[in-house]
Amino acid sequence: MTDKKCRSSSLVVPNPQLPVLVPSSIFNDSRLKVYRAHCFAYEASQIWEIWIRETTDMARIDYDASSQTHSLYQNLLVPPAEFILPISDCLRCLRSGLDYLVSALARKASLPDDSILFPFGGTRGDVEKSFKDDANKQRRAQALYNVQLRYQGLKEIVMDRIQPWNGGEGEFGDFLWRLITMDNIDKHRLITPTVIFADVHTTAMPGLSIEGARISGFGKANPAFQTVGWSAAEGQQQPDSTVDAVFPVGTKLEGASVLSAFVKGANLVDDAVKIFASEFEGK
């Protein structure tokens, strides 16, 4: 397989434009963090596309003379560190962009902002605890509680519109929880995406043709994922294949496309900034 035939199914991220900063807005720091997240996603996208163009032999067809069959294999690929680093930075920016929303409210209300974080939880009840009066609250939950006493709309935005917990519904819901809380992994180790095949495009050889073969499963112990046909001769061209970078096993978005997820996440955080600005500055 030549480098010209290597194709990526990952999203090609556009070069982001500078955000429109609103004069005197308390949420400009969040806007800049979202912009920076888009920049890191764009950088990762460029690195990915260059790597794909330079990577050869992503898939191969092997011939078994004894059975006169061809089997399609995936070569084990690991994305370069240059790709892993910007997606890690993108994740941190998205987390910070949300934290800056509530810390900006704290500063506006002349409250301490050093302990306040945007709430996330495994359940709705976990998040709701941040908005209830409880003498046993942890320091960060107490900080958010003190802020919501000054801003009556804050609880409604978080609990009814964003719903940042496992199983949350609506436009934000479960996805934002899964993406942003992977930041807890990033604090201890870098998220290393898995490279998988999305499909194998048309290829032909004497007595054999492959038309859009989809992957049925593969792994280190069983690299052959599909027997694709029969031929009396070993000579063949190698397949034109498409690969993607997905979140690895054990993460909360296991199997999801990395670049698409970060673009969606950045757009959702940007929507959250607009909601906060409309609620607390637009009136």
- Tally of extended strands? 8
Report the biggest beta sheet as strand number plus sense, adding barrel if it closes: 3 strands, mixed
Our count of helices gives 8
User: H/E element string?
Assistant: EHEEHHHHHHEEEEEH
> What's the number of domains?
1
Strand order of the largest sheet: 1-8-4
Give the end-to-end Cα distance, rounded to a whole number of Å: 60 Å
Tell the overall outline: elongated
- Strand fraction: 5-15%
- Uncertain runs are 1-6, 212-235
Rg over CA atoms? 24 Å
Overall residue-averaged pLDDT value: 79
Question: Helix fraction?
Answer: 40-55%
Structural class: alpha+beta
Structure, explained:
- The longest helix has 28 residues, at 81-108.
- The protein has 283 residues and is α+β, with helices and mostly antiparallel strands.
- The protein is built from eight helices and eight strands, in the order βαββααααααβββββα.
- It has one domain.
- Residues 1-6 and 212-235 have low confidence and may be disordered.
- The radius of gyration is 24 Å and the shape is elongated.
